[in-house]
Model the fold of this input.
Amino acid sequence: MTDQSMVKIGSSTDPYNEAKERGWNITDASALTGPLQLEADVVIVGTGAGGGTAAETLSKAGLSVVLLEAGPLKTSSQFDMQERAAYRDLYQEGTGRGTKDGGMVILQGRSVGGSTTVNWTTSFRTPPETLKFWADQMGVSGCSVDEMAPHFSQMEKRLNIHQWPQAPNANNAMLQKASEKLGYDWATIHRNVRGCLNLGFCGLGCPVDAKQSMLVTTIPGALDNEAKLIHHARVVRVLREGDVVTGVEAEALTSNVRGSTGQTITVRARRTVLAGGAINTPAILLRSKAPDPHGRIGKRTFLHPTTLTMAIYPESIDPFYGAPQSIYSDHFQWESVHTGPVGFKLEVPPLQPAFAAGFYSTAGEEISSSMDQLPNTQCMIALLRDGFHEESQGGVVELGDAGQPVLDYPINQYLLEGVRRSWGIMLEMQFATGCKSARPAHKQAKHYATWKEAKAALAELQIAPHKVTVGSAHVMGGAPMGDDPERSVNDCDGKFHHLDNLYVMDGSLFPTSIGANPQLSIYGLVYKLSSKLAAELTA
Amino acid sequence: MAGTAALSAMSAGATLSGCTSGGPASGMKHLRPEDLDLLRAMTPAVLKGKIRPTDTAAIDQTLESFDTLMADLSAPVVAGVLQAFDVLNFGLTRGLTTGQWAAWSKASLEDAESALGRLRDSGIGLLNAIYAAVIRLIISSYYLIPENAASTGFMPPQKVKGAARPSAPAEEATP
Done:
């Protein structure tokens, strides 16, 4: 798999190259010179996993749909596998999004397709343990394993989600090998790809439209059904007449999506669906001053706080090439559901250079020599399953001075214990598979040459916020569903408890984190909710 | 990864002291003259083994990349970064937090390494966060320059306008 530089990639598959011929109605709001007013059956805010799925379902039922997206429309013709442009154009705040105290970096998508445009294609159904916990403890009805199965099945078919049939790249293979060696469970990941070339650039936008993101599946589907897509349009608030929501007001953003042009977009609709993702959806509710008698909006926002260990091997790993994630281990995930230490999923990330460099949180000769050995570097990540234990209540979305969302999520002792425990497990796995040296993501750590040395160092390192490196690519919760309005924001149909005609259909509905990469959980749930809404509106 | 996050609370002291300066340095979109002094001192320490203090061309190239990266972040993040720089630039807070009492333009490589070490090892989480932001931004700026990324052995495929999509191996769809 070495030297991909000779591979030449065309973009003959970009469906947006034929937008005109296909009669698609797409508006770039940055070019508006006056106010824009539209009417529709349903206005959908956001074009990611939730918005894309809802748009196709509702438009297929014959309903008129307007989709609003704050980010730009970037498609495979522009995806050139370069880090700088991808981070600038396709991520929230140019990858600068983080928690309020700077303790966690948050990777979240921001372009047409949302995070599905930049995710690593890993697809899991919501784990049965999670669905059961929601039913037993969080007041969620209608979401049992059996009730969800047909919806997952439908979206798996739609997005060609299947077990990855090719050999894992060396980065993933090491997770498998270590699991086998130490007797841990592991399995092969399912991916939403069609004709994947195994390049490894999913996080920078798939250059060949193999990833079955919303950008190339449901959004084209909705556009074929005469939905209207407006990008560069950031929704400021929902519009209300008394207790009835009547649509949304958006501001047009400049072409670089960093400022407002001063033009407004108003969409009046029979139903308003918020699907801006956790963080942005609660922020819209807060900016709209939506009724919140029990103070639930923005609370219990979860991240799967994720930490890592890096190891250097004698053999070539080339962690920047090949399907980014193909192997996982849940060996430490469900030892208990909501008691005891935090559970975590083990996976690996792709390591393009600037991305990898940011992981190290170290400087000087340590970073220089580490980066020189990047082709021999393997990285393990542990995704902590937050929101189940009583000591894990997640973060709180607030509004900053400019009305922008700020997530206050300090890393507490319960999570820090999970960080320390996961480091021990991952480092042992790396030494068991013959690495020359390995280091945990601690700012005062270094590469340790033996497991014994690493274990001794782990006992000494101060495990404190800001000393450890923790980040997230999964944002969940903040507007949870549930039958009890005192404990939730929306009912189990996604309808906002305290206003009419307003729905939430994205990952902010989750009452806890998922305990798995969340995209398929969003697809399945939103397919269920939007199908029901479509049936109601067409009855 | 920039990973700078919202650093908004980090530099109330410096901001309230009124010691922040005005606009960007000539040729820069965000970085101010005092930020350039700070980063010129810090860059060879952060990238020791890659850039020497005398490699002014490499330092300038990294700072240019840094300024471009700043423009690619959001306004609140940029404000947070500049506030963190205020803490490191303003004489009193610079001295107290980093031990660097003289101006950054007078700092040696050893001074910069010592300053980074103090920020990293401090018991104050805020200073650890400033450390993380400064080093991540400098390192990311360096590796966002394609030739530096290539120096690690990373060579992405070429995108060729108008070329066809290579065909994929047959996949077995087993949902």
User: Anything to note?
Assistant: The two ends of chain B are 34 Å apart (CA to CA). Chain B touches chain A through 71 residues (CB under 8 Å).
